[in-house]
Design a protein that fits this description.
- By secondary structure, the chain is mostly helical.
- The protein folds into 2 domains: 1-77, no CATH class; 88-130.
- Helices cover 60% and strands 0% of the residues.
- The chain contains 5 helices and no strands.
- It is elongated.
- It starts with 11 loop residues before the first helix and ends in a 6-residue tail after the last helix.
Length: 130
């Protein structure tokens, strides 16, 4: 089974102007395939304007999702689909996190070793009990 891309084939360049002009009637929701909520917006006149304003903010921020749950983030259909899962520079960050995990593991081993040495020294009486 093929996985759907995380980015919608619908564009903000169309959805945002439609939302500004006809958003009170849910036209932008019809455009992205959200027919049910588009009908609700039509009946409630954009949730008395509040729902319409909320959608405008989501569209402008690139967080609005289409009917299949994919983000509507591209301004034009000619824009390349951005890689959402790994931002630029993430490989170096992942390498650094792996390095820190290794160092943390070494420190945990050293602490464990020191605890065993202290326990042995207490058992022999070289260190007085607390």
């Amino acid at each position: 089974m093929t996985e759907l891309p995380a980015v919608s084939d619908k564009t903000r360049g169309v959805a945002l102007p439609v939302a500004v002009l006809l958003g009170f009637f849910g036209a932008h929701r019809f455009y992205v395939g959200k027919i049910g909520t588009g009908l609700l917006m039509l009946v409630t006149v954009g949730g008395c304007g509040l729902w319409w304003l909320y959608d405008l903010i989501l569209l402008a921020a690139g967080e609005f999702r289409d009917g299949e749950g994919r983000r509507v983030i591209r301004w034009s259909v000619n824009d390349p689909i951005p890689e959402l899962d790994r931002p630029a520079g993430s490989e170096a960050l992942l390498a650094e996190v792996d390095n820190l995990r290794g160092e943390l593991g070494e420190l945990a081993e050293r602490v464990d070793f020191m605890e065993r040495l202290l326990t042995q020294a207490r058992e022999r009486g070289a260190i007085p009990p607390r």
